[in-house]
Design goal:
The chain is an alpha/beta fold. It has helices at residues 18-24, 69-82, 93-99, 101-114, 144-147, 149-172, 178-181, 187-196, 207-213; strands at residues 30-36, 45-51, 85-91, 122-126, 138-141. The longest helix has 24 residues, at 149-172.
Length: 219
């Protein structure tokens, strides 16, 4: 029988705090924001927002993609205990299908920031696109989840929250393996789609799903 080798996340150095501390020196309260589920074929879009105490030290926080599941869950709990404020914003699938990706990103990020106990003066946002569109003073940072600690913390919180939602949804739709693929277009997910077709959790505008939803022409 073939042996499956579990791929380990690559090692990386800890994200820094350069931009966060740049602003905190002038008493600007900064939060990091990152979203999870942007490229998934099914399920909600989730954003996390985290404010860290600039005077405190934090250990083990990395971009969520570089961590094993058990480590993500442990670090998410650690962030929730130690952070000054943590917020999560969710856009469900019906709303996502209605809004489209760009507006769904704005809604998820805005809800995460609104859920913080203390409002930030500035947002550090992972990526190159400011989807807040002026709703918050914002600095975009390409690969910010690798370079800024508060963004990495937000990525872990968002990932753990979304994975929990997908595990719950997997009980309602067991045929799609959402507890394993968390809605992404993996081979097992593709096989399930060919066999069962899309369900209510699928993003109908996504090309692979839209193609399956097209009526078949009869000759």
């Amino acid at each position: 029988m073939p042996v499956t080798i579990r791929k380990q996340p690559r090692r990386s150095k800890a994200p820094g705090r350069e931009r966060e501390r740049h602003w905190s020196r002038t008493d600007v309260v900064v939060c990091g924001v990152d979203e999870v589920g942007r490229g998934a074929w099914a399920g909600p879009l989730v954003a996390g927002a985290v404010i860290l105490d600039p005077e405190s030290r934090f250990h083990g926080i990395r971009d969520s993609k570089l961590l094993l599941k058990a480590d993500r869950e442990r670090i998410a709990a650690y962030v929730r205990r130690r952070a000054m404020a943590v917020g999560v914003g969710t856009v469900g699938i019906d709303e996502f299908n209605r809004l489209g990706l760009s507006r769904a990103l704005r809604e998820a990020g805005s809800r995460a920031v609104a859920a913080l106990d203390a409002g930030p003066d500035r947002v550090l946002l992972d990526g190159r696109h400011d989807y807040f569109a002026g709703a918050h003073p914002c600095e975009t940072i390409i690969k910010g989840d690798l370079t800024e600690l508060c963004i990495a913390a937000a990525s872990v919180v968002a990932k753990v929250h979304r994975d929990g939602l997908m595990r719950d949804l997997a009980e309602e739709y067991p045929e799609y393996g959402f507890h394993r693929n968390v809605g992404y277009g993996t081979l097992d997910h593709q096989r399930a789609l060919r066999e069962h077709g899309p369900c209510d959790l699928h993003r109908r505008a996504w090309a692979p799903i839209a193609k399956l939803l097209q009526p078949k022409l009869t000759v």
